[in-house]
UniProtKB/TrEMBL annotation:
Classification via Pfam families: FAD_binding_3
InterPro entries: FAD-bd (IPR002938), FAD/NAD-bd_sf (IPR036188), UbiH/COQ6 (IPR010971), UbiH/COQ6_monooxygenase (IPR051205)
UniProt-recorded name of the protein: UbiH/UbiF family hydroxylase
Gene3D superfamilies: FAD/NAD(P)-binding domain (3.50.50.60)
Co-factor requirement: FAD
Protein keywords: FAD, Flavoprotein, Monooxygenase, Oxidoreductase
The FAD-binding domain, residue ranges: 6-344
Organism name: Roseinatronobacter domitianus
Domain of life: Bacteria
Keyword Coiled coil in annotation: no
Length: 396
């Protein structure tokens, strides 16, 4: 006999696990599946060494999910975001502007945590919820939708039925493809290296984004490691250059990263292995189908600039929790309203982050000079700076 759930979540990344936690906390019966079991230890050779900064608006839905209480003890506040242009002849700062959260709020912009730790805490939360079933190692293969339910075929040969299917199964979402929903994809010819470093100069909870060419080199604050200040680094470069850097022996790689960092935090020492991630922008034609909601990278993908990616996913989840009730769960009207609510904001952010990324990639010196002048003019005006901060974190 086919098992029935209120909600099936396809995808066990941070977004999918968070969705299972929030709906489970609301009392729905939930099944969450993912073909790849989550890696929950930093030392694991396949762990995700990237970090996530949860911006202020994401905290409410994380509290609703019972996750924020678990995250707080591990979170590093992000009080200041610093933009540095180093596009001159030598890799050294020539324009620098600080965005201080105190100018618009009594709280930090957000709180930074390692992705592997987020997965660990999400899984621990799901284990506390008796109405949530998490089946790692099982994926979604087939989808049949009716007015009354979604019938989801799983990779173990069984099928399950749900009033609502939440597709949080990544940029190549099999559930989105099963619904025939197209996507618009932009490729930048870039990849990102993600790793951790220690350094002698404290970061003082400042996230620092250094622009030269190829893409930003970003420091994101982490707790101290072995008694030394520590930061996560996301270094975006052209695909060819990223591959070259990833293959360098550690001493040569450290020389390259110290040159690119402009010495802002003193000499950097590599404190983890290096991982490489492709960079694209992508947006789905719509964020729903019959009995199905698309969220996270199944709906939208942006380059890792301005901490937008997972926070857009949390905004998806916030909208779904507000629109769905036990009486209308998975019905056509709230699903159509979900697309209407989320599409304008997502489209704006996908376009805006794409433009910022292209500006950060500029290689020709005259274009880099023009970028520095434009950044200086924009960021020097206090009203413009406050507006950009409010837009960036999603606070009106």
């Amino acid at each position: 006999m086919r098992a029935r759930f209120d909600i099936v979540v396809s995808g066990g990344g941070i977004a999918g696990l968070s969705a299972a936690a929030v709906f489970g906390s609301q009392g729905y019966s939930v099944l969450c599946v993912d073909p790849t079991p989550p890696v929950m230890a930093e030392a694991d050779p396949t762990s995700d060494l990237r970090t996530t900064a949860f911006l202020q608006p994401s905290v409410a839905v994380l509290e609703l999910a019972g996750l924020w209480e678990r995250y707080k003890a591990h979170a590093t506040p992000l009080q200041v975001m610093r933009i540095v242009d180093a596009g001159g002849d030598q890799p050294e700062p020539r324009v620098s502007h600080d965005f201080d959260a105190a100018d618009i709020s009594e709280q930090p912009f957000g709180w930074n945590l390692p992705n592997w730790l987020l997965r660990r805490e999400c899984v621990a939360r799901l284990e506390e919820l008796p109405n949530v079933t998490f089946r790692p190692g099982i994926g979604t293969r087939r989808l049949t939708t009716r007015e009354s339910a979604a019938i989801v075929g799983l990779s173990d040969g069984t099928s399950v039925e749900a009033r609502l299917l939440v597709a949080a199964d990544g940029r190549n979402s099999p559930m989105r493809q099963a619904l025939g929903i197209g996507v618009r994809t932009t490729r930048f010819g870039q990849k990102a290296l993600a790793f951790a470093v220690t350094h002698p100069v404290p970061h003082e909870n400042v996230s620092t984004e250094i622009h030269r060419s190829g893409g930003p080199f970003t420091f994101v604050p982490l707790p101290d490691r072995d008694g030394k200040p520590c930061s996560a680094i996301v270094w975006m470069e052209t695909g060819v250059e990223a591959a070259r850097l990833a293959a360098l022996p550690v001493p040569e790689f450290e020389r390259e990263m110290n040159r690119r960092s402009c010495g802002l935090f003193g000499r950097l020492t590599l404190a983890s292995r290096r991982t490489v991630w492709p960079i694209i922008s992508q947006i789905a034609e719509r964020f729903h189908g019959q009995r199905t909601a698309l969220m996270a990278e199944a709906a939208h993908v942006v380059p890792p600039i301005g901490a937008q990616g997972l926070n857009m996913s949390m905004a998806d989840l916030t909208a779904l929790t507000r629109l769905m009730t036990p009486d209308n769960l998975g019905e056509a009207a709230p699903l159509a309203a979900y697309t209407r609510q989320r599409m304008p904001d997502v489209a704006l952010r996908v376009t805006g982050v794409g433009m910022l990324n292209r500006a950060s990639m500029l290689d020709a010196r005259p274009l880099r000079d023009a970028r520095a002048a434009a950044l200086n003019a924009m960021y020097s005006a206090a009203p413009m700076r406050r507006t950009l901060m409010q837009l960036g974190i999603g606070v009106r």
